[in-house]
Amino acid sequence: MAARIICRQNKLIKTLICRPQSTMSAFEIQHKTPLIKKTEPIPVALYGGRHAVTMLPGGGIGPELMSYVREVFKYAGAPVDFEVIDIDPSDESIDYALTSIKRNGVAIKGNIETKSENTEIISRNVAIRNELDLYINIVHCKSFPGVHARQSNIDLMIIRQNTEGEYAMLEHESVYGVIESMKVVTESNSERVARYAFEFAKRNGRKKVTTIHKANIMKLSDGLFLDTSKRIALEYPEIEHNDMIIDNCCMQLVSNPHQFDVMMMTNLYGSIVSNVACGLIGGAGLLSGRNYGDHYAIFEPGTRNTGTAIAGKNIANPVAMLSASVDMLEHLGHQQHATLIRRAIEKTICEDRIHTSDLGGTAKSTDVVQKVIDHILESDIRP
């Protein structure tokens, strides 16, 4: 009997030793194991006081908007050197892009087209956010006084969980004609987002945080997100907290957006709400988006549209991408350069009313950019 047990143990050990190791890449592991991606920082590239920043032009209008960013930075004297990487959705260039972002710590990007409905081809935008654990997305929805819009005097912050929810990309066909898509909500990520939202409100003098959810139907997933936000809210008694169901939220945004201050929500709801809010103040061409993790940051237009239909026509609104570049400069600590460019943008849009067609104007993209540059050259606060 003892010999038989030893024989079985030896077979088990041999099986464990000889068992082939997982061939999944770190990227695949992130998508097939919906846990927090653990990332380690590497030294940020900084040469002679200048920052190296990864630039991912993306598709559609992305490349032309990035050319405007480089032009404006040249005249503003911004101490930034761009490492430009074009990502082809059909190859592995994303690996080099990720390496570059990890090396530089910061990136600015346009939306990257997936161009395929093949389940083997995964969205490059989602892949980047997941691989770098950029668990927070922020869109500051603030009205421009010189822009005619459906609502005025809006000033609200949308804080969105950025790596899970319906964007976990866990789908399968259980039987023919029946697709199951898994929505992932974890307590750890929910807590990170809730704590970030309340800390953000506390640091920036905001008075109220609203949790957006659908816990009346998705009682476990959205219920966990809502319960976690309520628990974290108890640690911030000076900040008002309430919650609202997503469908009612969209209606309230259109009818009375001024009731909102900081809005916190899961991934898909964030995509919906940020587009609604952008539409209220003038459209997709105005607002920027910020993606943050513990070690890396990526800046982009707020609504993540590629604008393929208007690419190359010199009619795309450059303000969203220029605003994203200003957010990036503030993140890097170049406040003087950021202020210079931001004021130039505001003067162009609000005082000169140089508007592209999406805002009801007749100006070309280059007209807006040239006016921004003119204000930079005329400014008395140039670095």
TrEMBL record:
Q: Which domain of life is it from?
A: Eukaryota
Record-level GO BP terms:
tricarboxylic acid cycle
Cellular compartment(s):
Mitochondrion
Provide GO CC annotations from the record: mitochondrion
Q: Which Gene3D superfamilies match?
A: Isopropylmalate Dehydrogenase (3.40.718.10)
- PROSITE patterns in UniProt: IDH_IMDH (PS00470)
Q: What is its main location?
A: mitochondrion
MF term (GO), any: magnesium ion binding
Q: Where is the Isopropylmalate dehydrogenase-like domain?
A: 52-372
Q: Which UniProt keywords apply?
A: Mitochondrion, Transit peptide, Tricarboxylic acid cycle
Against InterPro entries, the record matches this protein to: IsoCit/isopropylmalate_DH_CS, Isocitrate_DH_NAD, IsoPropMal-DH-like_dom
Pfam families (UniProt xref)? Iso_dh
Protein family membership: Belongs to the isocitrate and isopropylmalate dehydrogenases family.
Q: Which PANTHER family match?
A: DECARBOXYLATING DEHYDROGENASES-ISOCITRATE, ISOPROPYLMALATE, TARTRATE (PTHR11835), ISOCITRATE DEHYDROGENASE [NAD] SUBUNIT, MITOCHONDRIAL (PTHR11835:SF60)
Name the chain's protein.
Isocitrate dehydrogenase [NAD] subunit, mitochondrial
Origin species: Cryptolaemus montrouzieri
